[in-house]
Amino acid sequence: MTSATKPAAPMLKGRREHYDPKVVVSAFLLIAPTIIGLCVLNIYPFFDTIRRSLYKTQGLGPEVYVKLKNFADLFKDDMIGHATRNTLLYMVLTVPVGVMLSLIFASLLNSKIKGRDVYRAIYFLPMVVAPAAVAMVWRWIFNTENGILNIFLKLFGIQGPSWLSDPKTALLSCAIIGIWSSVGYDLVMILAGLQSISKSYYEAAQIDGASGIQTFWHITIPMVSPTLFFVVLMRAMSSLKQFDTIYLLIKTTNPAYKQGTVLMTLFYREAFEKFNKGYASAIVLFTFVIIAIFTAIQFAAEKKLVHYE
Q: For the residues of 80-108, what is the DSSP string, one character each?
């Protein structure tokens, strides 16, 4: 004889869950380091930057409240115009080319080729090299007289330019380094997205007689578009904040300084060389607004360009 199954108790609307206080305290303790780090390293500095932008500071002297004067000076400064144009140009030069190369290499590495793991490590290697070391190596490569790039061009009878001191090529040279440095990281991200695509899509395309190019444009690109969106978003933000390579390669005495300086290098020189921290804070907030605008544009384009399963 079997006993009747007891019906489940109905869910009560508005019923509050009762949590064990020890569990709640343990949960807060676990996330406390992250929350503290976020507040100390991100949130507080951001609001302190806003405060500093309203003051004029010179060296170790006292702060003087100047309201919005730093922002007024910002739009009168010719170097801000040059730095903004160069920052946007650097983004245009690096993001499309870098992401496209990463997608091509990731597609090749996603196929069955010998030494695939070795190639992955080689492409990712620039990400673990210190920026100062990267700048030193590329300074030698771009050397006008003894650089291997100009020596290679001479073999074909081409006189190579002064890559880092010519106003026409200085920013382009830094963009080449930026692309070389970022391809490995973007490649790994895109490769992870490619490996998550079900093989059934490709099998169906093969049965329908689709060519390799058709399969790539109509299956691979749409299916990996969420990963591509993330990579483009992060790469655009990173390019707008570019600092180390350009700072190390293009000094203030460089003839191409105006054509090579970007907003972050200008910020550094104002803050840590001229000790004008109020004006430097205004530059940072100006850069933040530019990044926010481009991020908003990208999220608006996501709805039309990104396809989710």
A: HHHHHHHHHHHHHHHHHHHHHHHHHHHHH
